[in-house]
């Protein structure tokens, strides 16, 4: 059985006080808890608990002002990197081909890529959800074996308080698992599929009970221990 993973995406939020506060979180043995703070906080956070970055460049070094490479992230002690978040796809025009190149770089540096996929509301309303997700997956997935986490994050559910119903999440996660089996064979069983978008303490148990949901990528509710702890507890309860 896959271990549940609860990942907190702080986005462009947080400070040294929040890094310290999260060190006090209960981390059950049965659940993997990952904190993804902004890059300047990675090293201090990694001294206390497992961390991931929020993006990396596809190159290991070079003339790319403002960018951060996967080996630099690994050197902070981080173990993972979020790639292709919809905010990066929207704000920075990131394509799935770029996400794929970044995922290769992440693996080469020993990091687990957490590749984000998701449809917009217009795409869902047009009945295009699985086509969009399938195309993003095909173009974003690096070739070959290696560590991999996929996060299904409907764009319309991020930061909005709107969450797809259980059947909608189950449909996409089932589809993703089937596609991964076609591409990776039995290795597909090791890939954790996270749901992300307005996950809170109040809805986490219901989400973790959905087949093929192996955890959550949490934004707003990962910004205080009080909001994050119940989500971790719900993941632990789902393992019992
Ligand atoms: P949210 O963000 O939990 O605030 O909706 C999730 C995400 O963007 O990863």
Topology:
Elements: E1 4-9, H1 16-22, E2 31-36, H2 42-46, E3 52-53, H3 70-75, E4 80-83, H4 86-91, H5 96-108, E5 112-117, H6 121-125, H7 129-140, E6 149-152, H8 166-184, E7 192-196, H9 204-208, E8 215-218, H10 225-239
The structure holds 2-phosphoglycolic acid.
Written overview of the protein:
Helices cover 39% and strands 15% of the residues. The protein is α/β, with parallel strands linked by helices and 240 residues long. Strand 3 (52-53), helix 3 and strand 4 form a beta-alpha-beta unit. Helix 5 (96-108) packs across helix 7 (129-140) and helix 7 runs parallel beside helix 8. The longest helix has 19 residues, at 166-184. The termini are close together. The relative contact order is 0.17. Residues 9, 153, 158-159, 196-199, 217-221 line the site of 2-phosphoglycolic acid.
Low-confidence stretches: none
Strands of the widest sheet, in order across it, are 2-1-8-7-6-5-4-3
**Could you give the count of β-strands?**
8
Bound molecules: 2-phosphoglycolic acid
Protein structure class? alpha/beta
Q: Average the pLDDT over all residues and give the rounded result.
A: 97
Give Rg in angstroms: 17 Å
| Intertermini distance | 12 Å
Q: What general form does the structure show?
A: globular
Main sheet specs: 8 strands, parallel
What fraction of residues sit in β-strands?
A: 15-25%
Secondary-structure element pattern, one letter each: EHEHEHEHHEHHEHEHEH
Number of helices: 10
* Helical coverage, percent range: 25-40%
């Amino acid at each position: 059985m896959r271990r549940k993973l609860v990942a907190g995406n702080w986005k462009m939020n947080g400070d040294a006080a929040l890094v310290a506060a999260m060190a006090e979180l209960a981390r059950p043995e049965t659940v993997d808890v990952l904190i993804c703070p902004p890059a300047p906080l990675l090293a201090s956070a990694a001294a206390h608990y497992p961390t991931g970055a929020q993006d990396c460049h596809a190159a290991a070094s070079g003339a790319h002002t403002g960018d951060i490479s996967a080996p630099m992230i690994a050197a902070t002690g981080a173990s993972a990197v979020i790639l292709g978040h919809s905010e990066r796809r929207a704000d920075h025009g990131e394509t799935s081909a770029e996400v794929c190149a970044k995922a290769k770089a992440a693996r080469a540096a020993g990091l687990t890529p957490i590749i984000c996929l998701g449809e917009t509301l217009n795409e869902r309303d047009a009945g295009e959800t699985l086509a969009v997700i399938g195309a993003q997956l095909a173009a974003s997935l690096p070739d070959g074996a290696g560590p991999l986490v996929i996060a299904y994050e409907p764009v319309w559910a991020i930061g909005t308080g709107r969450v797809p119903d259980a059947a909608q999440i189950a449909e996409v996660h089932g589809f993703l698992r089937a596609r991964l089996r076609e591409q990776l064979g039995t290795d597909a069983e090791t890939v954790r599929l996270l749901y992300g978008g307005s996950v809170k303490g109040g809805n986490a148990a219901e989400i973790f009970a959905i087949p093929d949901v192996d955890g959550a990528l949490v934004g707003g509710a990962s910004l205080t221990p009080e909001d994050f702890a119940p989500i971790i507890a719900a993941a632990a309860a789902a393992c019992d």
